[in-house]
Amino acid sequence: MVKQAKSAITPTREEDYPEWYQQVVKAADLAESSPVRGCMVIKPWGYAIWENIQRDLDRRFKETGHKNAYFPLFIPTSFLQKEAEHVDGFAKECAVVTHSRLEADDNGKLQPAGPLEEPLIVRPTSETIIGELFSKWVQSYRDLPLLINQWANVVRWEMRTRLFLRTAEFLWQEGHTVHATKEEAMAETRQMLEVYADFAENFMAMPVITGEKTEAERFPGADATFAIEAMMQDRKALQAGTSHFLGQNFSKSSNIKYLSAEGKEEFAWTTSWGVSTRLVGGLIMTHSDDNGLVLPPRIAPSHVVIIPVTPKDETRKQVIDYCLELKKQLQDQSYMDVPVRVEFDDRDMRGGEKTWSWIKKGIPIRVEVGPRDMEAGSVFVGRRDRAPKDKQSMSLKQFVGGIANLLDEMQASLLAKAKSFQKENTRDITNETEFVEFFTPKNTSSPEIHGGFASTGFCCDPELEENISKKYKATVRCIPDISAEEVVPCVFTGLPGKRVIFAKSY
Amino acid sequence: MVKQAKSAITPTREEDYPEWYQQVVKAADLAESSPVRGCMVIKPWGYAIWENIQRDLDRRFKETGHKNAYFPLFIPTSFLQKEAEHVDGFAKECAVVTHSRLEADDNGKLQPAGPLEEPLIVRPTSETIIGELFSKWVQSYRDLPLLINQWANVVRWEMRTRLFLRTAEFLWQEGHTVHATKEEAMAETRQMLEVYADFAENFMAMPVITGEKTEAERFPGADATFAIEAMMQDRKALQAGTSHFLGQNFSKSSNIKYLSAEGKEEFAWTTSWGVSTRLVGGLIMTHSDDNGLVLPPRIAPSHVVIIPVTPKDETRKQVIDYCLELKKQLQDQSYMDVPVRVEFDDRDMRGGEKTWSWIKKGIPIRVEVGPRDMEAGSVFVGRRDRAPKDKQSMSLKQFVGGIANLLDEMQASLLAKAKSFQKENTRDITNETEFVEFFTPKNTSSPEIHGGFASTGFCCDPELEENISKKYKATVRCIPDISAEEVVPCVFTGLPGKRVIFAKSY
What is the chain A residue with the closest CA to B148? Predict the structure, then answer.
């Protein structure tokens, strides 16, 4: 066995993709399971990625006129019941609060006490509680549009959980807006979908397809749901964000009415839209390799790690001073309007082990500095998008001066790579035989890996959709916006249909 | 009745302080009660204050080496039970989750279903769940110190709630750290208390006293609790932040052990510290007046509002353009390293009503611009720390160039004012008669207003403390750090005691 071929993550993507994912999360120290069923712990490196997501999205929300607010964690069961489809969608898996204190029983064991008159659920999403408040806030057309966002935790009692991708508790943002007309509400729904798509592509370097969902995949209570869908490296789709046109369904169930300029009382039109910590899962599966996490610079908690190499005690202090000066110079540079983020790692640890720990954490740039680099006024630079041993000596001045460009180049190259992967694994499928073959796992050791995104004509019959989904484990991810007007024959029925993307999905 | 004497808030502070507080919150549109018992809704202007608090504190936490992470919302009841004092403190009022779904009964009403094997509580604080994880994270002295912070929501089932000051659900941050030695843990406890005190004073312009709590007011499970205490305008104390030295209590109950450099297994030493949305309540009651909220510039969501005055249609567009140019010029200025935050308010509303809406919201600077100001190249400026009619005409250039200084001056003057208020209402009390008189409400229409902070000698006997608290409604707020070494006779017993601050409190 050739030593160089060994990867830092076992198993590799080819060997066992789901297990590879878990091992990447672990090796990068992003998150772990907790003793509370289905709830994860987001560790500092993982949480810093989420903070960067929050900061950039929050700026985009504010630039489009939204304001943040905070609503109660609990929802009375009677609220949930107001919207019939909504309750069907969420009552089956939710955390129910029934008591307000604990009391020790005769054996000293704590038991629920102080039963509540009406049970509360921990919010799985907040349309109903926010709707109740909006019905008071909105009185006249002058109060519209009402553009609100909330950063919060939500709970859906999932049984089969996977770190970041599906957890009982997760962190997210939920936008909730109210408009005077159908057109404005639809424009908002569309605008936020675009915000998500632009964010995914330009901040996370994760290319996405935007489009409308079929009825089967609509948000419970929505008139239309739009989504961004990304392709993971196992060629499965990840729904990475949704934007819902809620029509007047929630304004009717929550009684959100306004007095128009003409003095007429009208039901308002509402939207909601959200992304969650699931994005971190998408990030991992878009870029990472068999050596662990790969982070696009814009989203990386730190851009550069400086690792001093100090074989001799007599030059140790000088090397460290040189590193600290380098750190300072890098921090004086800015990238995307913020100072370059730098780690200095002088932990007492073997050099190889230390370097590999940063490769596994996905830091974009590693700089090693030893006595000879110091003497030459140079640095030894490794990039996470190149092979671990592919390192380059550069003058310190050139490295510092070019850092923003270097990071930009890496960002662009990761996006380009992900884009061509998506393109290569998207195929026009024109008949059912091709369809079946496309979704049959390839003959490798990893049964997960199959064709990818199938672009097909589909008549959108709900019953047929359900049958296909059961039979082939592939679902309609969306009716892509770019081909929404196209009329193509359905590959299953031959009837006139829309162009859709079928894929296996998370 | 003289018209000028009328205030925007009814009642005034003198007339009914608690009701004045509620009305200030309402008039500034900071928050409101929700249909969920005890849970408040934080509205955009109130939430923006919280975001500013978060941003500044987060920076301070990171500068002192802490990293953010996220832990589960739920805590198994068995975890709570591990620390005996802790469970006593929190089991009496907590939200208990007992079921994992809802099912419609025969009448179509949703009922809890899917009972959990072990009930969970919604975190009232996270020592026990975080301790469980830290016991895995900490193995060797090399893993220490472990310095973690969490921004989160917590729930304590309070029956008597008041917006921001005491709510069932509130937002907070909780720091949790692990150290190898007692000294390091105590230094951390002290450091974070100082961070809070500096933040309160220099960001919120809210002067505080720092000191240790007596046994009666200690955090359940702590060896020592330190707090920052601020004086509100009704002269009551508000505990605005706490820092706990937890000794080895939680490391023993959660089994947080490390292998020392000498190869010995040792129990670690832990701390925890937190501030919450209660700070917003403290902010309101420190600075606001009978015209509503007053915001120190550093914490204000916006610094300046520009109000166009457009009596004639023919000059309307020009005035608006002039205002937008002013907005741009102001945003190009920076205050405290960020761009000056500006609102432009061209709502269709009477000028007086519009100006008063901003006074009630506490915005530091109001700028009115009419056709004559435009012609003269000037602006008409009102400051929230001056009387509403006390406005000044200034050249636009001078105003823009001096904006950062003006904001700084207002920040400093609000702090100075709050400091002298605290000083004026703090008195050395040397005998019980004085003590009683000090805490007897003054003969005004507002029975709440009394003496303030009583600086007295106290023997710190717990039973006596409880009796005094029952009899006089005043409690020991803290043993102030600046006089912690002093030995003074107890005003009640004559025994040698410590100098403490007694006050009525929130």
Answer: A44
Q: What do you get for the CA distance between the two ends of chain B, in Å? A: 35
- CA dihedral sign, ordered B254, B260, B266, B271: negative
* B98-124 per-position pLDDT tens digit: 999 999 999 989 999 999 999 999 999
Q: Model-level pTM greater than 0.95? A: yes
Say yes or no: domain A304-402 is CATH 1.20.1260.10: no
Of the candidates A247, A275, A270, the residue with the CA atom closest to the CA atom of residue A134: A270
A426-503 CATH pick, 3.30.110.30, 2.130.10.10, 3.50.50.60, 3.10.620.30: 3.30.110.30
Residue B87's pLDDT is: 87
Identity of the residue numbered A296: P
Which pair of tokens denotes residue A505? 């999905």
Which pLDDT value is given to residue A447?
A: 61
Contact between A101 and B119 using a beta-carbon 8 Å cutoff: no
Query: Cβ contact (<8 Å) for B101 and A98?
Result: no
Collapsing DSSP to helix, strand or coil, B222 comes out as coil
The CATH code for residues B17-287 is: 3.30.930.10
Instruction: Count Cα neighbours of B247 within 13 Å in the Cβ-side half-sphere.
Output: 12
- Point out the residues of chain A with pLDDT beneath 70: 1-5, 443-449
Which A residues, 344 through 363, put their C-beta within 8 Å of a C-beta on chain B?
Answer: 347-348
Provide the chain A residues 167-186 that lie in CB contact (below 8 A) with chain B.
169, 171
B126-165 pLDDT, tens digit each: 999 999 999 999 999 999 999 999 999 999 998 889 999 9
Which fold would CATH assign to domain B304-406? Answer: Rossmann fold (3.40.50)
B208–A contact, CB cutoff 8 A = no
The architecture in CATH of the region B425-503 reads 2-Layer Sandwich (3.30)
Domains of chain A, by residue range, sit at 17-287, 304-402, 426-503
How many residue contacts between A and B have a Cβ separation below 8 Å? 192
Name chain B contacts of A167, Cβ cutoff 8 Å.
none
